Amino acid sequence: MPELPEVEVTRLGIAPYLEKRRITGVVIRNPRLRWPIPDDLNDRLKGQIIHAITRRAKYLLFECGIGTLILHLGMSGSLRLLSNGSMPCAESGDSLVDRPGKHDHFDLIVEDQTILRLRDPRRFGAVLWQSGNTLQHPLLVNLGPEPLVPDFCATRLYESTRARKSSIKSILMNNQVVVGIGNIYANEALFHAKINPRTAACRIGLSRYEKLVQNIKAVLQKAIEAGGSSLRDFVNSDGNPGYFQQQYWVYGRAGMTCRDCGSVIKQIKQNQRSSFYCPVCQH
Ligand SMILES: [Zn+2]
Predict the structure, then answer these.
(1) Angle at which helices 206-229 and 4-18 pack, to 10 degrees?
(2) Can you give the residue range of the structural domain that contains 190?
(3) Which of 7, 103, 137, 183 is an S-S bond match for 121, by CB 3.0 to 4.6 Å?
(4) 122 is known to lie in a ligand binding site
């Protein structure tokens, strides 16, 4: 599943080709994503200029003057760009690579025939429209702070968890507390902060929260940098652009030895999600 770093790398990869460009239309091949793609989207977007592409949690926001196109990659979505020289089904040189495949549900076309194509085999992604204030959209209005902004800090996390008996892992996965950390990076940050994922949030002191917040920011930032440095070209690529495999300390390593102390990494289920931790390093 694309996590926050992949979404941010996608944003960085596509923005230079789309910002300040005029939309000439959209193609909806299958509107049945997580929510239906609005059928009047072409009328709304045609002629609009994309002023900026920003991100809130894992939502990509294409800000146009009259409103915002909201795009979410869901479980399996990916975006790629097709440039001028490789029009899909062009009259001459019809290219197999660029012909829309069965999972290519949506195209956004800007001037000079640059196409942003959404591929989403499992169709948990979303393409939506919001007029007016984007952040008032029902999916965005109740979201907690971004993990990489100063507003997300140890003091705030400490104060907001004094009465919370739920586990710190479930707190980190709660979008009203903080958005977009995701399962992989919650596991990794808890390992680096030496906190067991089952620890009740109210039992963690301020200095441990300081270490945790530092590590959350660090693992996400490192993942974004890794994605940026190994960024494949978003133009005319035929695979999943910008997704990257990293070396993890605990995530996906059940039964393997801890890279720090040599103990066996354990795996448990918390709220239907897998948690991985070192029983010796994390307490
Ligand atoms: Zn260990």
Answers:
(1) 40
(2) 154-277
(3) 103
(4) yes
Q: Are residues 11 and 78 in the same domain?
A: yes
Same domain, 170 and 94: no
Domain count, the chain: 2
Task: Please give the distance, rounded to the nearest whole angstrom, from the Cα atom of residue 154 to the centre of ligand 1.
Answer: 24
Q: What gap in Å lies between CA 67 and CA 197, rounded to an integer?
A: 40
Find the CATH number of the domain harbouring 10.
3.20.190.10
Give me the tens of pLDDT residue by residue for the chain, a chain 283 residues long: 888 999 999 999 999 999 999 999 999 999 999 999 999 999 999 999 999 999 999 999 999 989 999 999 999 899 999 986 554 444 444 454 578 999 999 999 999 889 999 999 999 999 999 998 999 999 999 999 999 999 899 999 999 999 999 999 999 999 999 999 999 999 999 999 999 999 999 999 999 999 999 999 999 999 998 887 665 566 655 555 445 667 899 999 999 999 999 999 999 999 999 999 999 999 9
Q: Are 157 and 206 in contact (CB under 8 A)?
A: no
Same domain, 168 and 106: no
The residues annotated as belonging to the active site are: 2-3, 58, 273
How far is the centre of ligand 1, averaged over its atoms, from the C-alpha of 279 (Å)? 7
Confirm whether 141 is domain-assigned: no
55 is in an annotated binding site: no
The reply, when asked if residue 137 is annotated as ligand binding, is: no
For the entire predicted model, the pTM comes to: 0.89
